[in-house]
Amino acid sequence: xxxxxxNCSSCSSDCSDRKAESLLAKLNPRSSVKKVIAVVSxxxxxxxxxxxxxxxxxxxxxxxxxxxxxxxxxxxSAPTAFGVSECQGANEDGLYPxxxxxxxxxxxxxxxxxxPASPVVWRGPVIAGxxxxxxxxxxxxxxxxxxxDMPPGTGDVPLTVFQSLPVDGIVIVTSPQDLxxxxxxxxxxxxxxxxxxxxxxxxxxxxxxxxxxxxxxEVFGKSHLDDVAASFGLPILARLPIDPAVxxxxxxxxxxxxxxxxxxxxxxxxxxxx
Length: 274
Fold this sequence. Notes:
Blueprint: E1 33-40, H1 48-61, E2 66-70, H2 78-82, E3 89-91, E4 94-96, E5 98-99, E6 105-107, H3 124-136, E7 143-149, H4 156-164, E8 169-174, H5 180-193, E9 198-203, E10 208-209, E11 216-217, H6 225-232, E12 236-239, H7 244-251, H8 264-272
Parallel strand pairs: 1-7, 1-8, 2-6, 2-7, 8-9, 9-12
Antiparallel strand pairs: 3-4, 5-6, 10-11
Helix pairs in contact: 3-4
């Protein structure tokens, strides 16, 4: 005779009747977020945060309400990109994110530090817990699209985000270098393991356009992304140039002034995602 009481959370037995338990964290009751898009990279230095900010601005210009969750706890930069320095406030229900001039909601660990230059010297589980709290304890108001700026790699934070947040799709940012095949493969395989759809690739730093003659110069060499994308059956959504104007805007808190035409294909893929 079975002694099962139906409560799998208090049972260590691995029986056939065991129920799958969701690891999704509960969104703050005062929040509303319709779609969550994670922007990831296999390694650092490919301009992932710049791409995240550009996508957020492009989506905002289309009339959507947009949020940016800066999950890169040890290397936060979203407040700098949008020229914000503090949250809107807090009450017993939660913490309100910062609001950019264009109305983009931004949450980052740097908004909570007395000194933004202070390093966050935390172990992995603590960092992952902080990211989770950005979802559960922050009040996101009527967000149509939330962009999660992920730290590079496949460590604790990406795992926490993929398990705890209802991610609707992933955009992988890469650069035209020889290591791209291995690095991209890791990111794609992790997404597949977590059963989250990859919307496609953005190749950043793809070329430098000569300001005099308009010739495209492949600073980092010939791209290898076409073969890699084809091997996974995924599209290349955009190839973005090295643009000093974008770098200046990012560092000056003026990302909402940049031209976003080159990410139109990425925006179309995000809008089409179910």
